[in-house]
Amino acid sequence: MDTTTHALAGYIIVKTGLNGDTGRWGTIAGLAGSVFPDVDGILGIFLGTEFMIRYHRNLTNSIFLAVPFSLLSAWFFVRLSGIKRFWSFFLIFAVEVLAHTFMDLITSYGTMILSPLSNSRFSLDWVFIIDPYVSFTLLLSTIAIFVWKKKATAIARISLILVALYISLCAYNHSWALNLTERYRAENGIDAQKVASLPQPLSPFYWGNYILTEKRVYAGFVNLIGDRETVTRSDGNFLSRFFSRYQPIRFIQYRTWDRFEDSPWVKRALQLEGVQRFLWFARFPTARYKGVINGNNRVEFFDLRFGLLATRRPFLYEVDFDQEGNVVFQGFLSESFSK
């Protein structure tokens, strides 16, 4: 999830009593442990999207490195604070780092929890990467702790229970949406390579259902508790268009895309190492030949799981060829680099 939510969660977790014999230094350690795994994401702001997809949620989210990191951090905080509670600091860091990894794992981005032994990306697809319900619950609890300091432990524990119940609801809804996707695949005789239901913004009842085949991608968007009246009403503003995207279960419609357009330029682009790296990251990739732009033949690769953000288009990968077929540029939108 986003770093701010991780920090709020880290503060709430340590306030449940985890910092009992380490005091304020334990709280600082909890915050440090909760945000440290995102250090690669912060580097990605400066080093670009390609760095992000290769290294974000990689070594810093490894379950194999959680213990060594916690040992090293505990030693550092003992030296820094002068508090001889090594194993208390170790427990704080271990809990916070593993909690961070779990909160990343429940999103659809993909987390390399087996790094460095494997670069496979794992995702539970339960919660959208920025979830206002989780964030605001933790934020309000943090404010309440500052107001009612004597009840900090009780407030923190109740907050975590509420967040756990919400995540459980999301997990249940994910299973519900995934069953709908599987049912559509079976009823239409689709030979699928991959089936997924991905969480969507603003509601735990909005889901994007995806089916990947050898040649196509199917996508349908569902509101699990919606009705016909609420989803068809639209007055043209952003929110109306957003809400109307998600259809009730009995009215859900699936749109199909060809995975890779039948173009010699697309075929040429598919041989590039950078494109293969993008395909390793993408879950529902498509490729389109966009024609001649500024004298070059342009091919665009996009992951349809990010299709909702039409105005932002994150992770759009471009390849430009000159008329002789040489690569002129390749890279993510607004981050192309010369070859």
Task: Give a short summary of the structure.
The protein is an alpha+beta fold and 339 residues long.
Question: Characteristics of this structure?
Answer:
47% helix; 3 domains; single chain; four-stranded antiparallel β-sheet; 9 strands; five-stranded antiparallel β-sheet; 339 residues
Plain-language structure description:
With 339 residues, the protein is of the alpha+beta class. The protein has three domains: 122 residues, no CATH class; 83 residues, no CATH class; 75 residues, no CATH class. It is 47% helix and 17% strand. It has a five-stranded antiparallel β-sheet with strand order 5-6-7-8-9. A four-stranded antiparallel β-sheet has the order 1-2-3-4, covered by helices on one side. α1 packs across α8 and α2 packs parallel to α6. The two termini are 34 Å apart. The C terminus is likely disordered.
Instruction: Work out the helix count.
Output: 12
> What characterizes the major β-sheet?
5 strands, antiparallel
The general outline is globular
Could you give the count of β-strands?
9
Tally of distinct domains: 3
Name the poorly predicted regions.
335-339
Radius of gyration: 23 Å
> Separation of termini?
34 Å
What's the helix and strand layout?
Blueprint: H1 3-18, H2 23-35, H3 39-47, H4 49-55, H5 66-81, H6 86-105, H7 132-147, H8 152-187, E1 194-199, E2 206-212, E3 216-223, H9 228-232, H10 238-244, E4 254-258, H11 264-269, H12 273-281, E5 285-293, E6 296-303, E7 317-321, E8 327-332, E9 337-338
Helix pairs in contact: 1-2, 1-6, 1-7, 1-8, 2-6, 3-4, 5-6, 7-8
